[in-house]
């Protein structure tokens, strides 16, 4: 877990819910606020949100898992998003992703045990003409390959 993240507590979660509850369609604003606070949606928040909004826990969980930008666990210090849309797949994204995961020592998408990197699939980064595409810490990479992504990560981890 990253050292700069707050530890989820029910008092803070309830305060976030109360602050966003008045909005029209408050579930998404509440989830965004929780993610901003904790870098993920804490499991302990789901029943509190459900109770406050008269929803089932399953309904809240369904929304959290439907939107790929919501996380159920904190991300690593660096986040790599690999496009999995058809244009990128046709240009080798599957092989590129497999090589990247192998290079990083990950068995599948997820976060390295040391919390340094999270690799996750996304479904279109809008760079179809430059496929395969990836995003490293918010920077788009067209015609991405695993060595270029690894180099970008190494540069990001290097002391300033």
TrEMBL record:
Keyword Metal-binding included in the entry's annotation: yes
Keywords: 2Fe-2S, Iron, Iron-sulfur, Metal-binding
Keyword Transferase attributed: no
Signal peptide: none
GO molecular function: 2 iron, 2 sulfur cluster binding; metal ion binding; oxidoreductase activity
Co-factor binding details: Binds 1 [2Fe-2S] cluster.
Cofactor needs: [2Fe-2S] cluster
InterPro entries referenced in this protein's UniProt entry, alphabetically: NADP_DH_HndA-like, NuoE-like, NuoE_N, Thioredoxin-like_sf
Residues the entry annotates as binding [2Fe-2S] cluster: 83, 88, 124, 128
Homology family: Belongs to the complex I 24 kDa subunit family.
Protein name: ATP synthase subunit E
Provenance organism: Pseudooceanicola atlanticus
